[in-house]
Amino acid sequence: MFDAADLQAIWLTVRLAGLTTLVLLVVGTPIAWWLARTGSRWKGPVGAVVALPIVLPPTVLGFYLLLLMGPHGPVGQFTQWIGIGLLPFTFWGLVVGSVCYSFPFVVQPLQNAFEAVGDRPLEVAATLGARPLDAFFSVAVPLAKPGFLTATVLGFAHTVGEFGVVLMIGGNIPGQTRVVSVQIYDHVEALEYAQAHWLSAGMVVFSFLVLLALYTLNPGRKRP
């Protein structure tokens, strides 16, 4: 079944997906709120940038992130200046790449949920003396709970299934950057089809359970 290298890759993938989802929820929530509420002319360009990873080939995104975080890139020069070294081919480099790649899968469900809340509940909260921040946490967030559930599930699942971005940024270092998708690729490349089958079947089951949770545990999700 699973050998030690497979279990190591699975654990690394779970860690990466969990941390990436947490970062995405923290960073993506205010951006989604702004997109849902703003009338600024910048809404279109910002929304397009957020959605860009959906249509951009993962290797393209990974290539430019590699340049940005490399020794001659602005991010790489900054990380070296503050003393943490370079991010490519490290776990934290994978986190940065995963956050960028899974960004729209968290922001867009949150934006849709915030737009569905509407103005009326917030106006009522304001008349009762609630400050904007209080109204956001006590009114908007509870009403947008289905959107948070969808964003969490999609963000986690999309990170688990990454391949092109993590391979470009992280390479294939056992215990540090070799996630499940890369481990499957290694098995296939070595003609170890039995091991590849077990990991691939596990990914199929995981994907099914994710979709099952998304469509049955989220009562606020409507059919298209």
Concise overview:
By secondary structure, the chain is mostly helical.
What does the model show?
This protein is mainly alpha-helical. The protein has a single domain (about 5-215), classed as MetI-like (MetI-like fold), CATH 1.10.3720. It is about 75% helix and about 0% strand. The chain has helices at about 5-35, 45-55, 60-70, 75-80, 90-115, 120-125, 130-145, 145-160, 165-170, 180-190, 195-215. Helix 3 crosses helix 5. The protein is globular. The mean pLDDT is about 90.
Using brief descriptors, characterize the structure shown.
mainly alpha; MetI-like fold; 11 helices
| SSE string, helices as H and strands as E | HHHHHHHHHHH
Give the overall shape: globular
Overall tally of structural domains: 1
CATH top level is Mainly Alpha
Q: In the CATH scheme, what's the topology name?
A: MetI-like fold
Number of DSSP helical runs = 11
Total number of strands: 0
Q: Estimate percent helicity.
A: over 70%
CA radius of gyration is 20 Å
Largest sheet: none
Question: What proportion strand?
Answer: under 5%
- The fourth-level CATH homologous superfamily is MetI-like
Low-confidence parts, pLDDT < 50 over ≥5 residues?
A: none
Structural class, by secondary structure, is mainly alpha
**What is the CATH architecture descriptor?**
Orthogonal Bundle
